[in-house]
Input
Amino acid sequence: MDAPSVKELMATFIARDITDGEEVFVGTNLPVIRAGALLAHLHHGPSMRVMVAHTRTNLYHTPVMEYFELLTDWRGARWAEAYFNDNEIVMYQKSRRDSVFFVGALQIDRFGNSNLIGLGPDPRRLRLRGPGAIATTTNASHVRRFYLFVNEHSPRVFVPRCDFVSTVGWGPGGPDARRRLGLPGGGPRYCITPLAVLDFEETSKRMRLHSTHPRVTVEEVQARTGFELLVPERVPVTALPTDAELDILRRRVDPQGLLRR
Amino acid sequence: MSGLTSGPMSGAEPGSERRSLLVEEPALSTWLRDGMCVALGGLATACHAMIGVRHIIRLGLRDLTVVGSAVGGLDVDLLIGAGCVRKVVCPYVGAEALASIGPFYRAAAERGEIEVWECDEGQYYAGLQAAGQMLPFMPTRGGVGTSYPEVNPELKLFSDPVRGETLVAVPAIVPDVALLHAAQADAYGNVQFVGTGYADRLLWRAADRTLVQVEKVVSNEEIRRAPERTALLAHGILRAPFGAHPFSSPGFYLEDRAHIAELVEAGRAFARSGDRGPLERYLDRYVRGPADHVAYLEAVGLRRLLSLGEY
Output
C-alpha cells in the first residue's frame, strides 16, 4: 500500500481517540473528520452511533457508505436508523453528554478558545465575515469533549488573541476555567492541524505540542504558531495508521480517495 | 382571502362546507408586506419556499427581517441581493460545499448594508422556542464565556434565580409569517413531510401565521391514512410542484447544482467588484421575467427538472 497521506494520518489520530459506544456528530464537507469517525466505528467501535448527513446510524456491517457533500442529502436515508428534527438535535444537549464533536476556526488562541464569527475590530462592520458559529457554541459547551480541527496551520489562525470568541476552550486558562464559567462539557482535548497535534497542559491549560506529523520539525510548528507553545522535552511523531486501519480507510471509508488528494 | 386577518371567529352559515386553505399564487401578496419579519424554512440546500421568495422579489418588498433556517440557504442570499432585506436573523447563510458563505450576505454585511443578528444555532432555536411558548425570552448556556453578548447586545447575560448560574437570555424571535416547503398537505392545512422537516415545525410554532408550499395537494383521506405523520397545521397551502427548486425536496428531487452555480457566480461578481450585471440577468430570466411559478419552471426547462431525480 502507498504511504499514508497527512489527511489519512489526521483521520487515524481522530479514530484512535474515539472509544466504542461514543456518539460522533460529523458535519458535512469535512472528509477528514468523517473518515476519522467512521474509521473508529468500523475498526473498534461496533456499538457506536454516528451522525453523517443528518443520518443517525450504525454502519458496522455496511460495506461502504456513500460520501455526501451536503448536509440534507436525503439519499443518506438508505443508511439511517433514526432521524431527529434539527432543533431537537441542537437544543436537547442532555443526550449529547456521551457525544464527541469537532470545531473548526478562523482563529484559535493559546487556551483553545476559537472564532468563527469574523475578523474585527468592529462587530457591526466585520472586516471579514466568517461563516458563523453554526451550532459550535452550544455544542462545545455541553459535549463530553471536542476537537479543534483546522486545515491551515499559520500565525493567521493561531493568534495571541481572537478578535471574537465563538467557542470557549479553556477560557482564561487554568484547570477549573470551564467549571468557573459553568460549562458542563469536557472542553477541547486536542487541536489537529496539517502539521501537528496539540493538546492542553493539565494545570495551565496552555496549548502544548503533542506530536508532529512526519517530516515536520518542532521549530517549524512553533514558527507557524502566533504564540509560544509549550514543548515537552521529547515530542513524538504522530503515529502512522496500521495496515488494518489503512485498509478500512481506503476500502470502506474513503474509496473515492478524498484523503489522498 | 387575506392571510393577515386573525380576528374573532365568526360562525359559518349553517350547512356550509369546511373552509379550504388553498391559496392561489397571486394571493401570496396578501400575506406579505414591507418591513415584515419573514421566516424561511428548510435547511442548507433543501426545502426552501422558493415560490414565496421569488414572489417577494417580484413585489419589490423592502426592509424585511428575514429569519432564515438554522443553516440558512441561498434563499436568504437571493433576497439580500435583490435588495429586500434590512436584517438577517440566523446563524449561517450559505450552501456548504457549493458556497461556503452566501456571497451577497457576506458583501452586504461587510459593507454595512444589512444588519446581522449574531447567534449560534442553540441561541437561534431558543429564541424561536420562546416565541412558541409566548415567553419573553429563553435561557441558554451556549454563549457564556463567548463574544456573543458583545456582538449581539440583545443576548443578555443574567444570573438565573434558581441556581445562580450565569446564562444567556435570548429574546423571543417572532416571525409575522413563516414560508415553508413540504411534501404534501390536504386543503385543510394538514402538512406532512418526507423526512424530518428540519426545524420547520418550530418555525410554525413561533410564527404568527404559516404558509406552506407542497409538492402535492392530497385528499383528506390520504392524510388520515397516517395522521401521525402530520407535522403542522398551516394557515395556507400553496400547490407547488418543484417549488423548492433550485434546492432539493426529499422524496422528490435533488438540488440543481448548475442553477445554484449560476446564482453563486452572480453573487461573487457582485462581491468582487459591485457588478450587478449577472444578478440582474438572473433576476430577469428567473424571477422578474416569469410571471408565475409555471413560467419559472418553463424558464428552467423540463429536461433540467426531470434530470434531478434522487435515484
In short: The first helix of chain A runs from residue 6 to 17. Chain A touches chain B through 50 residues (CB under 8 Å).
